[in-house]
């Protein structure tokens, strides 16, 4: 490495030397019997390494231009890597001798050389060690010269990098995306376009549109699918804008389905389609199919559906294949949107149905405001200090090229150290003066990278092995860092290596080296950062594609992204490769054998990821049997194959990913000598909720360094003696068996387990003493424990209490769930407040013999309590509350379901405060309707959500409901008690659902519920008996003049049946300006009155209208006037014979008829009497089948819809005139 990469410190010798020194020092002066020659070699190795270490430390803190020094440093690093391989082989031999010789866990502690008393090296290993020492001796002879050179090469004190060390950060970066001015304007534009595409009806605009339309050429069916490109250079905020659109709640609700795809540079259209299918239907495994078949399946999935797809970071490579993708997507429902981000303006012009939204660099004033906000935020500093800092900060801001990403990087760097010295050091950094032609890295990016700690630099640079825009899983990447020994465990640090790695990752996220993916499902590396990683790691990492140059000699981390076997076969024999990733196409004939040959030479491999490679399957891909009418499945006749056999000789492996490869078995010899293996991923998805069983060898319990085993529960349940894997970090489920190797005692030594542990078949535990041997109390990293007894057992089992007593968890557990427990009471630890101090969630289910609840009310941290099927509990009373002054001080959510013997929930008499923070209460009592009393009034100061189902005789609700004035959600189902709902006391309600409430009536006016957003009323015959708008009201015959100042102005979703429909509902509900979804069910009226017809006319925001099981003979004639109506569904309306004579709305996208009269079905067919009224509707479904259109109508069906989009953008162009907005209709895109 002699180029720009050396200037930013990208070659990482110091961490390698440090870990090799630590490993070698264990052999010096320890408890190891080494022959004299080996001892001398190890001693010389440590001495020479220590000598060179000082030079390396100094070099990594300078910007060095000496090519001779660069060559020497790289030679040194290669020798150190070789030394690490030799020491690794020595450790492998030691562990193997112990495992095979003694076969007891306590005699070969994980990753430790302790206890090794005799070390006799085989001849070849001894020779390799001597060769390494000789090379190192030769290099160390030049050490003093280069140390002097480094010390005299200090450019300026300001260039001596002041490294920032990783600090603890939040585990999840969940900041809301903040947009600057232009982004916000574009966001509003796109959102308005999606929500209201039909504006612009003035005569002048119609004339302008008609004039423009005459110049347009027919562009197939592009009025159904809109492609909106966002264009700009890297770092201007394209992805942030697309993410803001994608994650808006109104956008999620508008479209039937959504997908976010990060498009890598080497991704072809086939893989884009596969990603789309995987996003929409994760149960399908289709990698073996052809492009044509994949296209058919994608078309089948999205047919007629309105969707939003974001294709982030599209490149011109896709251009030649774009028409294939568009053709597949064009079967969508009308109004579907593909939002594209790209840096290529020509490509955007080519694919967009409208001219691109162009994001330019920010003006200096705007960028400075952005930088100040990032640096200072709400920080409280003196005015004088801020003034001095702002003077320096403004100088820095002027050097950021107008890029928001650069402002984020430098801003967070400045925020870390708020002092003038640090700011001046950054302001004077040599990178600002670097000639443009010399570096492909932005100065701001390089400076941000320089100021990272060396460990973070190394970890980030390693990520260049991933393709651009790859979705990165945080925990999986941390496992790779550990596998490469980038993260060391310090004996004085109580944190695990995984914890340290996650903190480092969060630091890199905070510094914008990673960012959340658009759908928040993982992380991606911004393009500018990925370019940096590629450059600074170019000596260590190589990404092989069809266009790659020759692989450099020193490369140690290799990624392959090609399906060209000739390219693969040219990979030279390199035994020092430490990482191998295959990102090529999943199935290419001969690929498996070719990769097997490549792996045979990679003896030093630490990380191997073949998860993109599919072993041939003997069955069709899982999940596509449903497409038998779409595809020919006859060609799937392959034989099942094992993974490449070369893997069994890769004894240095720490990380192995064979997930999603279709493997069915790992042979006995496959993992026989993989004693260093830390992470094994073998989960094989079969469908969304199912996984394929992988047969494991018995010897898997000898992988004593295994920390992560990612597979399904059935596969893991095969392992006999899993307790020997003492470093295992996760075990989602353990099934207790009666045979040796599967007993509860296997959990004894698994002290590193973290996260959630579910223990099933607890009935197979024979005694309390055996249960105690699981030592759950020692597993301090667990935060959730779930205990299951057998569901099918009958009667009382006196052992359950003793067994549960022995399964006492650690006091740090925050979640405890117990299922099918047959004891009549709980052991004492369930009442121990000090033990359960941190418990936040408790779920007790199907504990049918339990007669008394423990005093959970005294737990200070308990937030959620769920009780299900506790058949023997007769009362909720002081036994549950406990003896503290305040019962349930932190509880916010309480669920009681199917407590069939529980008669009463008593009010406490011995506590001063009772559920002070309870916000959500859910009671389900469908079995015996036993519960009759609940102290609802005690919750009036906090309760915001109340859900009751099947509480027929709950009399206390009637006298307490008007006290619950803070409710924003009320759901009552199956309630027979006479009760009056006072709407004036419930004005905060946002969700109201009343179903099968035969004695419920409303007191007051529904229109007083001004915050109501969702309303559902069904089977409530007395609902309006007290209303002034009852059916007998004299106003019923009067004409309606809707008062816009009245009505449920926030209501967006309404479902009603005869309970409201038999009344003057148009008066009861009033104006509904925000209503988007209306479902009317079971109407007994034969026709709509004039008042009701006028009421429908005022539903200007209505998006979807459904009539179900109604008796009317005609639809409201005013439907044709509704500008936002997109879908009308008519379900089981047997008396409806025709559609309104004045037609259906001009912008209607879908009309659906299900089980309607045959006459109506006939009239709605092409050529039928009503066909002219609906010929403009893109999707017409009759009994689930989309109606085929006559060929000659394709060219004129949807002109009005596309025209409305054009008018919309004429409006926006006028609004934003003079702002350099280049958003206009593309030529050729209006039919």
TrEMBL record:
GO terms for biological process: defense response; response to other organism. This is NB-ARC domain-containing disease resistance protein. Residues 223-378 form the NB-ARC domain. It comes from the Eukaryota. It holds the Pfam family LRR_R13L1-DRL21. The keyword Phosphoprotein does not apply. Residues 16-106 form the Disease resistance N-terminal domain. Belongs to the disease resistance NB-LRR family.
